[in-house]
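W.,

You were right to be curious about this one. When I first looked at the sequence I had no strong expectations either way, so I just let the prediction run and decided to look at it fresh. Below is the sequence, 90 residues in total, followed by the output.
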Amino acid sequence: MSKETPAHHLPVVHPPKRLWQKISAIIAKTSFALAAIGVVAILVYGNDVAADIKAALGATTFFCFAVGVVCQAMGGTSIPNLKPAPDKLN
């Protein structure tokens, strides 16, 4: 039996995060925080406002949560460098 580690047990080396991935992760955290604030606002003011205002606040909360999910996925993905290598001119 071979003493080498099988390929599926080798550690995965992820490329470093790019600037826009870091910005996307920050936007995701902010968006999740805004969604949480929206849920609290709906729970606190839910019975005191009209139904259309409560619906608009619920839609805004859902939108913030959905943006957070998408930005978190974009910020947490391991994206390789897709730039082509420059041709060496000799």
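Here's what jumped out at me. The two ends are 48 Å apart (CA to CA). And, maybe more interesting for your project: The chain has two helices and no strands.

Coffee later to discuss?

I.
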